[in-house]
Design a protein that fits this description.
Helix 3 links the parallel strand 3 and strand 4. The protein is globular and about 65 Å long. Helix 7 (197-209) crosses helix 8, helix 8 packs parallel to helix 9 (262-271) and helix 15 (391-405) runs antiparallel to helix 19 (469-494). It has a six-stranded parallel β-sheet with strand order 2-1-3-4-5-6, sandwiched between helices. Strands 7-10-11-12-13-14 form a six-stranded parallel β-sheet. It is an alpha/beta fold. It has 20 helices and 14 strands.
């Protein structure tokens, strides 16, 4: 059987960095890790090809070649999903679909022949056997959370690695916390499952053997979710990386309580971690309590961030506006916290009610849902419920926050503070080859000559130059990321308010 794996296109998002990755010499930020892993679960005799629409278009020749098309997607990709399904149907191709979007909305999606709901490891063998026998069922649902020690190494040979700014690996799944708005505990469970040392080494080695020597994002739901196993994982990375001249610079996402473990922070720095994304959500204790963000409520967030920064890790902070407990003070409070904590990369989103979450169920019971979750958490269409605050004031305040924090003078001031701190030691091992030199000169031209914020850019480069070439490299990276976030934040601020998509009764009745 010939299987075409298709990853739909993302709209412009915070973490997509679509405006900056071309300047960095890439076509997309991250590869489709889920599809690459699914590809490795297919029978060895099957042929497979992969098309990532964020890198290249889907050609008719791709569809003509295939016997079946496998699609995986997040809800934010749904416009592209619908286009891919329509093209497959026009060609008479069998479609298999999985991933978060289809988990939540399979009852509403038309044109898909077979759905895989939940994690794929325990159902792929049955699905593949049924496809070969011509008896495949409409739905294959995982009965639980599979053993990740059975997860195969992604098939990196299906993509061109240099099309991406960073590679992605996943060493654990699940999160022990109970945040009301989050669907991770629904999709991947509350008991983090961690891969053993040998498997960690094998996945790192596969990328190394493929020739990758740059960034890796460890795409765990919560890297620090299982504290004991997290330490074992980091030790395994240290062991592997030290034996190979430290070829990778890593980043991940975690909970703020990792600040309580200074020995682990030091170990992460030894392992090559340079940055960590942390969901901070709110500066309001009432809002943190409301959404069950207890890991932030139990500590001084500013002090915890300072601890992480002091150990040589840069924090990317995620914030949410729109909790019932938010007052009109929240906008200035978030701006003040981001500035005082000197978080250069802060992403601020409007609260959305995602299906199957506690928040969704509560708002549904209260009669406050007014639309389906569309995946767009950075504009008013993502606000798919009636907020406690006046909707107009909430949207206007949100736009004011995102419009302010990435204005050039404000952002470059935070970027300078990032460089003034302890620079992540892992950055010293980052390669400087043809691609990096190209990115350097493109950035100088676009941000140092053409961009309206060039005077702030040159001030940052001048400051970094006094600290050495590693600091200059960090300044280039921060400038590129800030450029993307500034462009996106201005687009958000300029967008007219759009109503969320209407609720679909088929899903509402589940």
């Amino acid at each position: 059987m010939k299987v075409l794996l298709v990853y739909p296109r993302y709209p412009v998002t915070y973490m997509g960095f679509q405006y900056s990755v071309p300047l960095a010499g890439a076509k997309a930020s991250l590869p489709p890790l889920g599809l690459l892993t699914v590809a490795a679960m297919l029978p060895r005799a099957w042929e497979r090809r992969l098309v990532d629409l964020n890198v290249a278009p889907l050609e008719d020749a791709h569809l003509d070649w295939a016997d079946a098309v496998f699609i995986s997607a997040m809800t934010v990709q749904q416009e592209s999903v619908n286009d891919v399904i329509a093209r497959c149907r026009a060609k008479g191709k069998r479609i298999v679909a999985g991933g978060p979007h289809f988990y939540h909305y399979h009852a509403d999606v038309r044109g898909v022949d077979h759905f895989v709901l939940g994690e794929a490891e325990d159902v792929m063998a049955e699905l593949c056997a049924d496809l070969e026998a011509g008896r495949a069922k409409p739905v294959y649902r995982a009965s639980g959370f599979p053993d990740v020690t059975k997860t195969p190494v992604p098939e990196w040979n299906l993509i061109r690695l240099d099309d991406y700014d960073s590679m992605a690996l996943q060493f654990s799944r699940g999160c022990p916390f109970d945040c009301e708005f989050c669907d991770i505990i629904i999709l991947n469970g509350r008991k983090p499952r961690v891969k053993p040392k040998a498997q960690v080494h094998a996945e790192l080695q596969a990328l190394y053997d493929a020739g990758w020597r740059r960034n890796i994002f460890v795409a765990d739901d919560n890297f620090y979710g299982n504290k004991k196993r997290c330490r074992e994982l980091v030790e395994a990375i240290v062991e592997w990386r030290d034996a190979r001249k430290r070829p990778f610079v890593l980043a991940t996402q975690s909970s703020l309580n990792m600040a309580d473990d200074p020995d682990l922070l030091d170990l992460m720095v030894r392992a090559g971690f340079a940055a960590v994304f942390i969901g901070l959500e709110s500066v309001s204790p009432a809002s943190l309590a409301e959404c069950h963000k207890v890991q932030n409520l139990k500590r001084n967030m500013a002090r915890s961030l300072a601890t992480i920064h002091a150990h040589g890790l840069t924090v990317w902070g995620g914030f949410v506006i729109g909790f019932d407990s938010d007052t009109e003070l929240v906008f200035d409070e978030q701006i003040s916290f981001i500035e005082s904590s000197e978080i250069a990369l802060a992403t601020v989103s409007l609260l959305s009610a995602i299906p199957h979450t506690q928040l969704y169920d509560r708002l549904k019971a209260e009669g406050r849902l007014i639309g389906r979750f569309g995946g767009a958490i950075v504009d008013a269409s993502g606000l798919n419920f009636v907020p406690r605050m006046d909707r107009g004031k909430l949207v206007a305040g949100y736009k004011r926050v995102v419009g302010h924090i990435y204005e050039p003078e404000v952002y470059y001031r935070r970027a300078r503070a990032t460089i003034a701190r302890r620079i992540p030691p892992a950055l010293a091992s980052f390669p400087c080859g043809r691609r990096e030199l190209g990115a350097f000169f493109r950035t100088l031209w676009h941000l140092g000559v053409r961009d309206e914020a060039r005077r702030y850019f040159w001030k940052l480069i001048g400051f970094a130059a006094r600290k050495g070439p590693v600091a200059v490299g960090l300044a280039i990276t921060l400038s590129l990321m800030g450029y993307h976030l500034r462009r996106l934040s201005r687009e958000i601020a300029a967008r007219p308010e759009a109503a969320p998509a209407p609720l679909v009764q088929a899903h509402a009745a589940e």
